[in-house]
Amino acid sequence: MVTINDIARQAGVAKSTVSRYLNNGSVSLATREKLDKIVKETGYTPNTFARSLKATKTNMIGVIIPRLNSASTNEVLSGIDQKARESEYDLIITNSNQDRERELGNIQTLINQKVEGIILLAREITERHRKLINDANIPFLVLGQKAEAIHSMAYSDYEAGYKIGQYAIELGHRDFLFFGVSEQDKAVGLERKNGFLESLKDTTDTTVKIIETSFSKKVAYQDAIDALPNSKASYVVCATDNIAIAVLKAAVELKYSVPEKFSISGFGGYEETDYVQPTITTMSYPYKEMGIQAVENLTKLVNGIDIPYETLLPNELIVKNSTIKR
Amino acid sequence: MVTINDIARQAGVAKSTVSRYLNNGSVSLATREKLDKIVKETGYTPNTFARSLKATKTNMIGVIIPRLNSASTNEVLSGIDQKARESEYDLIITNSNQDRERELGNIQTLINQKVEGIILLAREITERHRKLINDANIPFLVLGQKAEAIHSMAYSDYEAGYKIGQYAIELGHRDFLFFGVSEQDKAVGLERKNGFLESLKDTTDTTVKIIETSFSKKVAYQDAIDALPNSKASYVVCATDNIAIAVLKAAVELKYSVPEKFSISGFGGYEETDYVQPTITTMSYPYKEMGIQAVENLTKLVNGIDIPYETLLPNELIVKNSTIKR
DNA sequence: TTGTATGCGTTATCAT
DNA sequence: ATGATAACGCATACAA
């Protein structure tokens, strides 16, 4: 391994000169050229660890994601990646695999790595999260969930649920089947559902059956196969696009035609909803945009610029062919 | 920030004792308990950089992926992640965004980070790659493409293409439309196509029209809209599942019924092919398994155990409802 | 502009 | 079992 000392020796200068050459750059043209040459020849690159040991700035942002094979996560991530690149930040991406202990461990690891800020795609913020974050005194941004007294960016899921309900009511639907997920996930499990339920309150004669299923298509498919035959619903609300796609498959399997027999809608705005038959009406979320804005916000925090604790991103109803008038 | 010195001072011992306590652990019970307490109270964790500055082992594996929003990439990645976790390796995941300069930069970064080995999900290995790898003298594993004199793992894409062709011929098809991608991608663009073409050679009276499209569904969809009306093919071979899904959508749009009007098959074995109508016949690739084996192989290399330069993974034809006899 | 000396937090060597 | 000290590679305050 070639070090700054090697370069200095070969060039016949002090290593501080080399260091200066590498950083602020107050060196004479002659030595600069000499060093240019030697660095190139040797392929020398500064040792990150030695550098970071001294430095206060590492130019790195840490990201913690809940899992690797999620379409929405990866969209957010690619937004983060794009903006981080533009802002000349390096990214450290870690995966918690939906494991809380691992998530906390990842935060600690990132702090040790002296990242300048952490972006956490989270489901729930516990006291231990708070303690860790406070002790480290590091800019921290939670994505996808709101969190008291912590900077966060989230979608207005309650409103999204409400809008879906409103839309369905306007179409004349009164009997609903709702496929949700665990309330542990505040945004997806709780708020979407509550917003939806709230939207029905102004209308009489509505019925709702709620089924808790999973993010997994396979599980959701099976749950739909079980539930659809016993349902009188004319509109099936699915808490995610994946669930909607699975329910659609179950419907096809059971020979219920969609949307004639019942309408289906999802949440997420995944590209995949465009490539099934019928295409699925969905609440679209600006995932990539969230990633971009997350880095922007974090950059502000890093630079001591104040931002509101909570940033809400809009969502938009995309009507496609899976929903019709009753 | 609390350091090993703080701990030592508080415990009234030398920092070397604390270091020993942290590592091999040859300390008396009394001091151990004292240190346990203090470490817990202060929330002390060793500084990664200082550690890595001395240490020869970092316990980190570097991974370079071409993009963040690809289903296959993420499957591989989740296999890598799982096995790395089991093997107590930390992962550094970097994204090249399909940019060669960035890819080379990432390799350099990872080398600087003193990772113990690098896994590269690659399209092409250039001389500059080789130089970098050789100079660093670090275990290196290329995934998805073969590479001369570099350890690699790949699917037998040629064989996969051949098997698809064979299957279609057996079904009685003679007229083909092939949606491929750029030959720059050796595995997907070249080998699948060549294997397929080779399989037709034993049969007379076959016709093939080849169209080069893109990995993007949107582009593939548009290309299919343009190409399908002018095609007399009874079987459409798509070089990826995404392309197959896009072609299917185009077919529906154009009111061609699949598989009656023509059969469609893909490559990849994506879950998504199970959730469209009809479900799509595909060559399934063990993506996650590749990730797992990649870490196993890299671990061997790190430990100086020799493995063959080339590891080929099998693939399997999954027949579904998009292909029928002619 | 350049060189000298010091310190960053840790591990390793060698005494004790 | 424990402590003192050197070393890792680099940045920087200060002196020249």
TrEMBL record, chains A, B:
Family annotation (Pfam families): LacI, Peripla_BP_3
GO MF, any single term: DNA-binding transcription factor activity
HTH lacI-type domain ranges (all copies): 2-55
Sorted UniProt keywords: DNA-binding, Transcription, Transcription regulation
UniProt xrefs under SMART domains: HTH_LACI (SM00354)
Keyword Magnesium: no
InterPro entries (alphabetical): HTH_LacI, LacI/GalR-like_sensor, Lambda_DNA-bd_dom_sf, Peripla_BP_I
PANTHER family hit by this protein: LACI-RELATED TRANSCRIPTIONAL REPRESSOR, TRANSCRIPTION REGULATOR, MEMBER OF GALR FAMILY
Protein name from the UniProt record: LacI family DNA-binding transcriptional regulator
Species annotation: Marinilactibacillus psychrotolerans
